[in-house]
Amino acid sequence: MNFNSIYATHINEYIEFKRNLGFNLRDVEYVFIQFDRLVLQRGEDKVGISKGLSDAWCAKRPNESEGTRHVRVSTLSLFARYLSNRGYLSCIPEIQKFKSSFIPYIFTKEEIRLIMEASDKYCADKTMPNSCSLVLPV
Predict the structure, then answer these.
(1) DSSP structural state of residue 131
(2) What is the distance between the alpha carbons of residues 74 and 95, in angstroms, rounded to a whole number?
(3) Structural domain harbouring 43
(4) 61-118: per-residue pLDDT in tens?
(5) Of 11-25, 71-85, 124-138, where does mean pLDDT reach its minimum?
(6) Do 83 and 124 contact (CB within 8 A), yes or no?
(7) In a domain, 130, yes or no
(8) Is 31 inside any structural domain?
(9) Nearest-angstrom CA–CA distance, 45 and 62
(10) Angstrom distances, CA of residue 55 to CA of 22, 51, 58, 62, 129
C-alpha cells in the first residue's frame, strides 16, 4: 500500500506489527487509505492524533452503517494507542459498544421442505455440468 501523509511510515510499521502478531489486515488497509487521504486534506503537519483530526475521522458519514463506522473508529483508536506508546501525543477516541441491528430469518419446516423440493427439481446446464450453478444459495 502507498500512503502519502505524514503518517505513511507509521501506518506501514503498524500494519507490519499487527501482521507479525497474526492479524489479517486487508480491510484495515482500506481504512488507512481513507485516513491517509483525510490527513492530506486537512494539511496535518505533526505526527500525533489531534482532537480535531480524531473528531473529523469519527464523525458519522452519510449512508454509513454503524458497523462500518465502528470499524473505522476502532482502527483509529488502536492506531492512536500505538502512536502514543511510541511517544506521540495522541487523542484516543472512545470506542462505543456496537449493537448489531441484524435480525436472522428462521425458515419454517414447510419453507425448508419447499426449498429442498425446488432444489431436487433443478437441472444443471448440459453444456457445463460441473459449473457453480449447482450451488443453490438460500
Answers:
(1) S
(2) 6
(3) 8-85
(4) 999 888 889 989 999 999 999 999 999 999 998 887 777 777 889 999 999 999 888 8
(5) 124-138
(6) no
(7) no
(8) yes
(9) 28
(10) 30, 6, 5, 15, 55
Per the CB < 8 A criterion, the answer to whether 39 and 68 are in contact is: no
Dihedral class, residue 63 (left if φ above 0, else alpha if ψ from -120 to 50, else beta): left
Inside any domain, residue 64: yes
Instruction: Give me the number of domains the chain comprises.
Output: 1
| Residue at 97: amino acid letter | K
Residue pointed to by grid coordinates 441491528: 101
Residue type, position 123, single letter? C
Q: For 40-78, give one letter per residue: b (16+ CB within 10 A) or e.
A: eeeebeebbbeeebbeebbeeeeeeeeeebbbbbbbbbe
Distance separating alpha carbons of residues 23 and 103, to the nearest angstrom: 29
Cell of 92: 484516543
**Is the residue at 131 inside a domain?**
no
What's 71's DSSP letter?
A: H
Distance of alpha carbon 43 from alpha carbon 40, whole angstroms: 5
Residue carrying C-alpha cell 492479524:
23
Burial class (CB in 10 A: 0-12, 13-18, 19+), 39: buried
Supply the pTM of this predicted model. 0.69
